[in-house]
Write the structure tokens for this entry.
Amino acid sequence: MRVQQISIFLENKEGRLAKVTDVLGQNGINIRALSIADTTDFGILRLIVNKPQLAYQVLKDQGFTVSTTDVIAVEVSDQPGGLSSILRLLEKVGINIEYLYAFVTQTTTAALIVFRVEQVDEAIELLQANGVRIVPGDKVYQI
């Protein structure tokens, strides 16, 4: 039920993001979702890709500072309040969300939300018990 996310530490210089996307493209790796958080000097690029293990290796081989993190992907009704209901479930049991990002798929009427929490297994169990559809990594990588 976990999704493997790739995180890349990038200097905030022109061309660095383009280099990452070049390396991925040259290796047949397709980006499914991404998020960038930055400061003046650096940024952290978080990616969900179709081939996470290969992405990790080719980026590392090219000298990037890269890591992998397990995240959770849940399907949320693409309507007002859809995300709020899931966030309230996690809040009630004290699970803090470190960050999240979302994307809308072309084939459904739902949004896909990617969460990073410390208590991954506990969050998965809670969400499943409350009928939230968790999308496994092999499905997310192929969206």
